[in-house]
Amino acid sequence: MKKQCDYGAILDSNINLFHLIQEPIYIISGHTHNVLFANQAACTVFAWDTHVGKKCYEILQNKAEVCSSCNRFINMEIGETRSWIWYHPYMRRHFKVNDTIVRYQEQVCCLEVAIDISVQIRQKKRLRKALKKLKHVSYTDDMSKVCNRNALIRDIKQYMNHAHYGQSVGAAFFDLNELKRINDNYGHRAGDLKIITLADELKRVFHRNEIYRIGGDEFVVICRNISESGFRDRITLLQMNIQKNTGLSVAIGSAWSTQCNALGKMIMKADKRMYSHKRSYHKNNR
């Protein structure tokens, strides 16, 4: 059985107490939607010069007709409570409104307490924004603007999940040749520019979220739901672009499979092929 609490009677006998409360409190007629009472805090916060007899939806929502807020307590019983969030468009502030159905002035009314939660809302928004930025920083390589090693570890775990078993996948390793010589002879800034150039060429052929810089001048590409021929064509296109546009020398190793659950072995195979390619380059360019 619900506890019956006649807040109207409390208001009648403790009018000064309600005016001392810092949160806005007002009572709205459930029949006419008129504001029957408002404490001093409500008048101050909402800048009400006069409120008695005014429609709640006019002075609270600046509307010409009954709004959804007014209909909230139609099916509620005396003593029943409900909370909801209200955004005041002109004040640009959020309020948590606690409704309680009361009997006041011989009619069923809604006593509302509006608690300003704008600071909390802004803090939550800033926190979400900061977490989003932190997530981006955690999974993005700052220099090349592609995914980093953390993202690769995360995605490998995801791709090897049972839900992705039936998907084809291609993996490739890329490593710049002669980066140490470039750093030694021209400085690390020159070496960084070569790394950025390779990243840019990768982004011309693959989606940014398919590319991972895993350290130094090493990049990994993972493509899901791609045919073997389609994957090979993209590798070939990349090689042609690199040779034509940059003059970079890049060691490449790749592998493809019909099953994502073989991704771990594929990455190892692609890595070995890349190092084999790199050894051949150094053997031929002594």
UniProtKB/TrEMBL annotation:
Cited Gene3D superfamilies: 3.30.70.270
Annotated GGDEF domain residues: 167-286
GO MF, one annotated term: diguanylate cyclase activity
SUPFAM superfamilies associated with the record: Nucleotide cyclase
Listed NCBIfam families: GGDEF (TIGR00254)
PANTHER family attached to this UniProt entry: DIGUANYLATE CYCLASE DGCM-RELATED, REGULATORY COMPONENTS OF SENSORY TRANSDUCTION SYSTEM
Name of this protein: GGDEF domain-containing protein
